[in-house]
Design goal:
Elements lengths: L3 H22 L3 H14 L3 H14 L4 H17 L3 H13 L4 H13 L9 E4 L6 E7 L5 E6 L5 E5 L4 E6 L11 E3 L5 E6 L4 E6 L6 E5 L6 E7 L5 E7 L6 E6 L5 E6 L3 H4 L1 E6 L5 E6 L5 E6 L5 E5 L3 E8 L4 E8 L2 E10 L2 E10 L5 E6 L5 E5 L8 E5 L21
Antiparallel strand pairs: 1-24, 2-3, 3-4, 4-5, 6-7, 7-8, 8-9, 10-11, 11-12, 12-13, 14-15, 15-16, 16-17, 18-19, 19-20, 20-21, 22-23, 23-24
């Protein structure tokens, strides 16, 4: 039972604290910035500085100059902690909402130092598609042709984007139709696609002529998928599996139909593998694994070595880009889906991953062109008004990256 004396004492104690609470709550953004600088530079307490800079960013929207300086210093702290991706994210946010010109200029320079494009360098534009479609499938490497399924059909068609001319490559019948996978060759002259519920892989010239089978199933439980093409367009890569046999990747000669097994992968449903992408030399496969933690793995098909590229929160896709020297992938971030890239060499990641774009929403890629234009649709909606291209994704980092420095005017 509480006595009147104890209750009165507690009330007096709370009243005595009120001036201190009010003083803390009323600290100006400028004063908080000074405290953050002191914690960062004098006390070397990065966690405390990060907490203060984050508070300024969240609570001092009216004072954009102070917020900009706090965001820049927040990026500096993240880089000091070795959290490069967090530093890039904060710097890109700063560039996207400029107010303090000097600070924003430093943020742009810092992004260049870190080897990441600014949000201003990455541009997005809408592509006009002239016909109704139920499904967009594949883009040619020069960005000239887009394969798709016309609305309400199981046909396979191709559109030349520059001229808006389109034609049917494979007309569906009761016995023959395209399930939904197709790949245009790097030279833009051929298109390989599945038929009859993955029972056959067929190739045609891009105009629909000279159609012939590349692969046909030998048993009812066998299925095949088009995985890609060799860089010289002379071979198509076909993934073949049964319910009991791990997936084999075949290189099939376009002219002769000769088949050569180049790798054998674990059965997908034993390790949760999904969204597989093969390099144009047939040496490496990148694929997504699992649901939690959701990872992205790069496998060397010759040695069997595997490298984990993303150890958690992987998104829905991974693609080879920039002449197979980079992987482009999505990742689930605190602010929605994000687009990332990482350099690769001889089947291994080089350096750290770079954040290219945040707040993407749900997207479905068609492919990356030779000049690194990324074509996709948003929100998984298959309509003609929903095709986009993202350009300016990759820039070269400076030869000798340096640690970001604060170089920010202190507030008095």
């Amino acid at each position: 039972m509480k006595t009147p004396f104890l209750c009165q004492a507690r009330r007096l104690f709370v009243l005595a604290l009120l001036p201190f609470v009010a003083a803390t709550a009323s600290e100006s953004p400028s004063l908080l910035l000074e405290k953050g600088i002191y914690a960062e530079e004098v006390e070397q307490n990065l966690d405390s500085a990060i907490k203060i800079y984050t508070q300024i960013s969240a609570e001092a929207a009216a004072n954009r100059s102070v917020v900009a300086q706090a965001q820049y210093r927040l990026a500096v702290c993240y880089q000091k902690q070795g959290k490069k991706e967090e530093a890039i994210r904060v710097l890109n946010e700063l560039v996207q909402s400029p107010s303090d010109l000097a600070t924003v200029t430093k943020a742009r320079e810092a992004l260049g130092t870190l080897g990441a494009p600014t949000s201003e360098e990455v541009t997005i534009r809408k592509v006009t598609f002239p016909v109704a479609s139920d499904w967009f499938i594949s883009l040619s490497e020069d960005g000239r042709f887009l394969a798709y399924k016309p609305v309400g059909t199981r046909d396979l068609a191709v559109c030349e984007l520059a001229t808006a001319k389109s034609w049917i490559v494979s007309k569906a019948t009761e016995d023959s139709w395209v399930r939904g996978y197709a790949m245009i060759s790097p030279d833009g002259k051929w298109i390989a696609y599945d038929q009859n519920d993955y029972s056959a892989i067929v190739v045609s010239k891009i105009d629909g002529s000279e159609t012939h089978a590349l692969w046909e199933r030998k048993s009812s439980d066998e299925s095949g998928l088009v995985w890609g093409w060799s860089s010289d367009s002379l071979q198509a890569f076909v993934g073949v599996q049964t319910q009991t046999v791990p997936r084999a990747i075949l290189a099939v000669e376009l002219k002769t139909g000769a088949k050569r097994e180049i790798a054998r992968l674990p059965k997908p449903n034993t390790n949760g593998a999904a969204w597989s992408e093969i390099s144009s030399d047939g040496k490496y496969v990148a694929y997504r694994v699992g649901s939690y933690p959701r990872t992205i793995v790069l496998a060397d098909l010759v040695s069997g070595r595997e490298e984990v590229i993303v150890d958690r929160d992987a998104g829905d896709f991974v693609l080879f880009a920039d002449n197979d020297t980079r992987l482009l992938f999505s990742k689930r971030g605190d602010r929605g889906n994000e687009l990332w890239s990482i350099a690769i060499k001889e089947g291994k990641p080089v350096g750290q991953a770079q954040l290219l774009r945040s707040n993407l929403g749900g997207i479905k890629p068609f492919g990356v062109t030779r000049d690194n234009a990324f074509y996709y649709r948003s929100s998984w909606k298959n309509n003609a008004d929903n095709i986009w291209v993202m350009e300016g994704l990759f820039i070269m980092p400076k030869a000798n990256p340096v640690m970001l420095g604060p170089e920010i005017r202190r507030m008095s």
